């Protein structure tokens, strides 16, 4: 859905997280609402930069994988409806920018943002929950939302051309089991988590089960399905 707001999901297994980071669109931030209203074109997100690092690079763009903390407030009375620091043991949230995993206003508000930057953004109802609101998230109809955001990391997204090329060591435009196996080993070493020895093989098998549609033992660029704004 194009319009969503952060909501905590049940904890995911290592297999699920690895698959999401490698080949599947992330869904850590999700809700069924969609912004409505004829005033959407006339309204826009207001952005106030609270802190800008001296070295501001890389800047976020559509398809990037972001890591951030943010608090959400109702503009009407200043009440807080969401705090990422109280969810998931206080870990910052990961999501892909510009693909509808957060509300439209946040997708807009976090473009061209760099690691270490802090922003305060005001999002009109038409770019948040519109006329229907979101009762489960304690957001009333026609609510203007304010988010205070601190961005920690900007990484290449799981379906970017860069990510595909990083895995495709022999540059043959398809991913072999050996290439993905090596990529998983590198990712596991990078995050430093203790995993059962069988986790690697289970994740590798699941990746091919879900993505090798023609069963030829490779994941092609088409099967990898990079975001439409990228080209291979």
TrEMBL record:
Keywords, alphabetical: Calcium, Endoplasmic reticulum, Glycoprotein, Isomerase, Metal-binding, Repeat, Rotamase, Signal
Sequence ranges assigned to domain PPIase FKBP-type in this UniProt record: 63-155
Reaction(s) catalysed by this chain's protein: [protein]-peptidylproline (omega=180) = [protein]-peptidylproline (omega=0)
Domain annotation EF-hand: ranges: 155-190, 199-232
GO cellular component: endoplasmic reticulum
Pfam families: EF-hand_7, FKBP_C
EC number(s) per entry: 5.2.1.8
Keyword Endoplasmic reticulum: yes
Position of the signal peptide: 1-35
Superkingdom of the source species: Eukaryota
GO molecular function, one term: calcium ion binding
Enzyme class name: isomerase
The protein, known as: peptidylprolyl isomerase
């Amino acid at each position: 859905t194009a319009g969503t707001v952060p909501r905590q999901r049940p904890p995911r297994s290592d297999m699920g997280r690895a698959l999401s980071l490698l080949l599947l669109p992330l869904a850590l931030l999700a809700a069924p609402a969609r912004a409505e209203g004829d005033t959407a074109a006339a309204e826009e997100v207001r952005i106030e930069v609270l802190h800008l690092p001296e070295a501001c690079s890389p800047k976020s763009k559509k398809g990037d994988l972001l890591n951030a903390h943010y608090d959400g407030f109702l503009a009407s009375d200043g009440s807080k409806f969401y705090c990422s620091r109280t969810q998931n043991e206080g870990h910052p949230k990961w999501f892909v920018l510009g693909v509808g995993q957060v509300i439209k206003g946040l997708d807009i508000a976090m473009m061209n943002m760099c690691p270490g930057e802090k922003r305060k953004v005001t999002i009109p109802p038409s770019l948040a929950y519109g006329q229907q609101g979101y009762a489960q998230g304690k957001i009333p109809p026609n609510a203007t939302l304010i988010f205070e955001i601190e961005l920690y990391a900007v990484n290449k997204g799981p379906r970017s051309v860069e990510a595909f090329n990083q895995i495709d060591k022999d540059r043959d435009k398809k991913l072999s089991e050996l290439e993905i196996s090596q990529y998983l080993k590198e990712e596991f070493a990078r995050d430093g988590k203790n995993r059962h020895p069988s986790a690697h093989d289970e994740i590798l098998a699941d990746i091919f089960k879900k993505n090798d549609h023609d069963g030829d033992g490779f994941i092609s660029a088409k099967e990898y399905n990079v975001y439409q704004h990228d080209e291979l």
